Amino acid sequence: MRLLVTLPLLLFATTAFSQDIHVRVDPHGPGSINSTTDYTTIQQALDHHPFPVNAIDGPRHRVIIEIVPGVYHERIIVTQNHPRITLLGLGKSPEDVVITNSLNAKTAGGTFFTETAEINGDGFEADNLTFENTAGPTGQAVAAAVRSDRAIFKHVRFLGDQDTLFADFGRQYYFDCYIEGGVDFIFGNATAVFDHSEIHEIRPGFLTAQSRTAPEQTTGYVITNSRITSAIVPSANSPHSTFYLGRPWRPYSFVIVRNTELPATLDPAGWSQWKADDPMPAAFYAEFENTGPGADTAHRTPWSHQLSPIEARSFTPDAFLRGFDYWMPTAAAAKLP
Length: 337
Prior knowledge:
By secondary structure, the chain is mostly beta strands.
């Protein structure tokens, strides 16, 4: 009888004192084949880090991978069986830790083989670093592909041209991020919010290509309290010196832009069909109380919408991403540095 009492107590004690795992990535550090805390590449750390005690069924502790400043020429993958990974850049700014590659669809054999970072494990976090694809205007070239539920990106830069960020599955929260590209550079079918971020259009094109496939789905993108900026030089002689907030990659594409500053180079129509001769789409594209020279809605495409204040309440970060588990992404993001 005494043994039966003691064993549960020991199990409880092990669970109660389980802690986050901290490992370090430094190309010039002491990492060796025998180390479990020091690695010379990010992928080594992702593949070989220790797991917190009871990582599957126990407390929600994390593996925190601390990355020293540098440029990391590698492709990384966070697999599904590695949940609750945090990538933490140790530099003074996101520019100090850069994860970079340069594959495009032509050289890699398709868009979905080009990503610099592939993130599949749930509960992923990234803070104070950069994901980059330097292929340039050579076709589809993904900087990050994210299929992680309850994912958080804070102080993160995503750099590319076409198809920069594949936000495709799960609930994702981007806070104080910088995302740049030219064509369809935020795309996929995640439920994602971009909050207090800068989204930068580098040439005439389309900001989003959200891909909700059925009307009953709850996926979509919300851009809120942000700035959309543009490197496009307006020209009275060129009809193609503007960009659009989005076009529907799939029939029921869903994007909300609210309380966001819009530049003068936004096309007055705001939104576009996938192709110019497509019929009126079933997409839901809407705006609410945007500002800046591009915020005038007088000439918006007739199938876009303007939200009422009551409708807009459903599209705050915590409301849109809550889900059945009542996730509070703003509180979770506040815990990151």
